Every structure is written in structure tokens, then in C-alpha cells.
Amino acid sequence: MPDLDTGDATELAELLQFLNDWLTSDPTHLDASLTRFVGTRGYDLPQLRADLDRFAFLLGGNDGEALFQPAPD
Predict the structure, then answer these.
(1) Angle of helix 27-38 relative to helix 45-58, nearest 10 degrees?
(2) 60 vs 26: CA distance, rounded Å
(3) Which of 3, 20, 44, 66 sits in a 20 to 30 Å window from 51, CA-based?
(4) What is the Cα–Cα distance from 22 to 4, expressed in whole angstroms?
(5) What is the pLDDT of residues 17-72, one digit of tens each?
(6) Distance CA 6, CA 4 (A)
(7) 2: helix, strand or coil
(8) In the predicted structure, residue 1 carries a pLDDT above the cut 80
(9) What's the pTM?
């Protein structure tokens, strides 16, 4: 499997951060939409945002701070 070019990794991390920011902009509507799309409440908006944060961190796109915050109530 080829390695990911640094420039490509940067762009991918920026895209993940953009999506995460967008999900933060309207959580009520987007969470309902995600639930309809997934078909169950087993995977929700906070989990998706955590996954995006983790992937961006692994690509070097953030410092991982969001990964070590307590889960929201």
C-alpha cells in the first residue's frame, strides 16, 4: 500500500476538520439526519465527530486535544 503524501495528508486533515466544524454548526438537524441515514441511534453525532477528530489527529491535522476532553453530558 503506498504511503500518503504529506500534502495529501494535510488536505485530508483539513477536510476532516471542515466536516467536523460543519457538524458543530447545527447539531440538532444534523444528528436527526445522521440517525435517518444510519437507520439507528447506535452511531450518533458525538461519535462521528470523535472519529473525525481521531482521523485528523492521526494525519497530523490537530494536536489531539479534543480526544482527551471529557465526553459531553
Answers:
(1) 90
(2) 26
(3) 3
(4) 25
(5) 999 999 999 998 999 999 999 998 888 999 999 999 888 888 887 666 766 666 55
(6) 6
(7) coil
(8) no
(9) 0.73
